[in-house]
Amino acid sequence: MSHYELRCRECGRTWGNQPRSICDDCFSPLEVAYDYDALRASISREQIAQRPPNMWRYSQLLPLPQGYEPRLPVGFTPLFQAPRLAEQLSGTTAAAKNLYLKNDAVCLPTLSFKDRVVAVALSQAKAFGFDTVSCSSTGNLANAVAAQAAREGLKAWIFIPSDLEPAKVLGTNVFGAKVVRIAGNYDQVNRLCSQIADEHRWGFVNVNLRPYYSEGSKTVVMRLKRSVTGVSQS
């Protein structure tokens, strides 16, 4: 039995686990809800600390299919102390006395914070039986979807605004994804993707897989204290 399910943010209706992001009853967003009582009995900080240094060490706290075996060591990127910036900000907030900056620009496989969210979304894409994944994007997300789809043996279709800079598109093309330029802005591209998701059995990471996709972001702050030559990671 799964330790998580989709739940409506407003009306509270549960939807099990399926590729959807909107509640049919009240049209509010769906979120992943966990059975934390069950989780407390199956995981501890000590167990997590003994696992490999990547985001998958928190697997019980992520919406991953049963038996899922990650292929990439995503996450656990450096956290650097910023004392001079903290000093400049100390007059506005007490929390700035101990300030750290997160460098997610070294995240695998495309050096972007989007690698985290895509990794979780694609774990569900395979579980739902999709052979094609997709997204609307203006750069980083496109690269992350294309790279990880190639790794997982999935086809990828990426929809972008037609005026997107060539340098941003290059990182997507190298992974063999199909890139579709749309005459419109990002919001228009995203609406088109929502319509395509209704008609085709594709996994759109920021449409019908969005609740799972969003859960990948929290691994940025799910951190056990760790110090390696003055650098903390998570």
Structure overview:
Strand 1 (about 5-10) and strand 2 (about 15) form a beta hairpin. The strands form 3 sheets. Strands 8-7-6-9 form a 4-stranded parallel beta sheet, sandwiched between helices. The protein has a 3-stranded antiparallel beta sheet with strand order 2-1-3. The protein is about 30% helix and about 20% strand. Residues about 225-230 have low confidence and may be disordered. It is α/β, with parallel strands linked by helices and about 230 residues long. It contains 8 helices and 10 strands. Helix 5 runs parallel beside helix 6 (about 165-175). It has helices spanning about 35-40, 45-50, 85-90, 115-125, 140-150, 165-175, 185-200, 210-215, and strands at about 5-10, 15, 30-35, 80, 100, 130-135, 155-160, 180, 205, 230-234. The chain has a domain at about 5-60.
Provide a brief overview of the structure.
With about 230 residues, the chain is of the alpha/beta class. Helix content is about 30%, strand content about 20%.
